[in-house]
């Protein structure tokens, strides 16, 4: 129903809802995207049901008229309810949530022609290092000058130089080309009996209302093939589908796999899209034309016209947790969205989170299991290598037994994968003469040496400095030593051990674009690589039939520090990487290097007794009242000035309410005591399940004031702490 006056939520988090008069002839209803004048500014906002957002009533005669109605579909009611829920649950301004619904300003504009640039293939005669970097990084890319400059990490001027010298060309793109339409019957697989049973059950739930399902199947059991059947059914019924992936790097292989099944690629949504693609995807999603959307967590808040199914692939992944801004967990919000939309949601995982298992135990989600690998492939056998008993030689990290196994694989022409979840060459550089350690000036973190790029980098704030030639402290040359291994160093060791082997490093430093990722897949498939050394980037999604050996360089890495999820995360990560081995006809072997072969998580991996591990973990969480049996929230107080941060944190701590069933710990320096130049102090709230922690925290923080230089962020259900 058109409204005579409108309450508008703008995208500006500092503003509450604002009231406007709707001019004659403008049909505004709840969900309309409008232009709201404020002082001299024009703000984009969404009209909301006034009764749901208490605000100061302003008399009709004092209202300014809305400045315009944007010609896009109305933001649907279920999505508005989801926005309210998210703002409430994660203690965030509604405006911040709404920014995820309307993330693309170009989608709201009328223009249909956009100017972009791409490489011509010509290389100019004079190549500065900056230009070389740009030419390297922009291979296969297209975008505006600004987008390309950001991607290549060079200035706009460098790119304009390349335009002038003919290496980059200008092209006009038509923004609103039609999106392709997946064909549900293009190439359906022949499913095994188990797979068919699971698929039938999923297919039956399409169109039938809210239905959260855990699709729990070992790696390589065909979970993707199975949920594709549900996707096909939703498409047949004319509904839209959202598939959430944990990592942008997995998008490209997924698009190809989808195309093999459905005859065309789905619509992609992630942070790496250029603005023309973003515009096209957003408008297709809002109009209902984009039938299947595959994306990172941010795709969750888009205004689907007719959503019929959500799939969360690798649902246990930590990367579904957003760590700044609105700190939401995409897995949990996906379930809420399905609830508001009244549709099924599939959580697919080989190693479901304890939280998800708990939902199954308590009857709130149902579970479908796949217990066998496709085509009789066997799960690989897993062996722990005790580094205390059989250590590698000094200064090396690959144990003798693993060396022997790699040798055997080289002899038979099979591929091997060495996994270490640490980018770069070495996590720490120190001066032998004076003991100086290279630390990030902005963070409580060491600078990590990236030898391939000839620089040191902070993995928290992104600061990079050129690789130093002398110690900045004592001036000594040749005194700098790299401490500990990163993947680049393991690759060096492999090269020294097996000079004839063809080795590839797979990290975000080497696979920086979809083109690179596709090239890596091709090389693996065509047998041009013998040994891959990689970070968690290679642990998921890939299917290489000739890969039969996986070596885990340091299983203890994730166990140190001892946070709540250390053992669970290690279990998931090693299961995941182990799952890359033996996916074809040949059996796989997994060797796990560790100093603590008796640790319960390692023992569980070796014995394959998942249930026992889960039971033990669950029990210890239950005893401690930890999630999913209790609730946690972290309040992080940060400021550039340490004292200011600490004093504010103390003040907040002193005002902590006494509530039955809730305890407040701290403040104490946060685990990353300094991040991006801000000092951080943390209070941890631990409460019983039934307590409305959000309400308590909202009232508590509402009664404390702090200076504008201090930031107070609440992380509800923190993933790591
Ligand atoms: P998961 O997602 O459980 O790890 P996938 O769906 O990726 O498993 O399946 C593993 C591999 O087996 C993939 O290459 C997939 O195409 C193949 N596969 C699984 N089920 C079938 C089937 N019924 N017919 C043909 N290929 C299948
Ligand atoms: Zn830093």
Automatic annotation (TrEMBL):
InterPro entries: DEAD/DEAH_box_helicase_dom, Helicase_ATP-bd, Helicase_C-like, P-loop_NTPase, PriA, PriA_3primeBD, PriA_3primeBD_sf, PriA_C. Its EC number is 5.6.2.4. Keywords: ATP-binding, DNA replication, DNA-binding, Helicase, Hydrolase, Isomerase, Metal-binding, Nucleotide-binding, Primosome, Zinc. GO terms for molecular function: hydrolase activity. It holds the Pfam family PriA_3primeBD. Zn(2+) 2 binds at residues 440, 443, 458, 461. Initiates the restart of stalled replication forks, which reloads the replicative helicase on sites other than the origin of replication. Recognizes and binds to abandoned replication forks and remodels them to uncover a helicase loading site. Promotes assembly of the primosome at these replication forks. This is Replication restart protein PriA.
